[in-house]
Write a structure and sequence with these properties.
Helix 2 crosses helix 3. This protein is 35% helix and 12% strand. A three-stranded mixed sheet has the order 1-2-3, with helices on both faces. The protein is built from four helices and three strands, in the order E-H-E-H-H-H-E. With 106 residues, it is an alpha+beta fold.
Length: 106
């Protein structure tokens, strides 16, 4: 499947960038599958994510990512970094929830 016309995917469900630990030689997970299908930028999760974390991070991400009315997929990694860094001051959010999202791609 060729998804190369798609520049960006944000996977906010739990464990979208984790493979099956029972089969370590099979490292394909949803985010990697999208990368192999030639999606250029993917954001996925490494473990279970709280609903409050998803809401807070995704709102902040898209506000910054599309703030000027345009989406720049090449800036996804930098925007994710900035948003995660800005949330480090939120003492109500557990540390594992600060670092649950990861970027794969360009």
């Amino acid at each position: 499947m060729d998804l190369s016309r798609h520049q960006f995917v944000f996977l906010s469900a739990c464990e979208t960038a984790v493979s099956d630990f029972k089969m370590p030689n099979k490292v394909i997970h949803l985010a990697a599958g999208l990368q192999f299908a030639r999606v250029k930028n993917i954001i996925g999760t490494l473990w279970t994510v709280n609903n409050s974390t998803v809401q807070c991070l995704v709102e902040a991400f898209y506000k910054k990512f599309c703030g000027d009315g345009k989406m720049n997929p090449k800036g996804a990694a930098q925007v994710l970094y900035q948003v995660v860094h800005s949330l480090t001051h939120n003492k109500d959010m557990p540390l594992d929830q600060h670092i649950v999202f990861m970027h794969i791609g360009v």
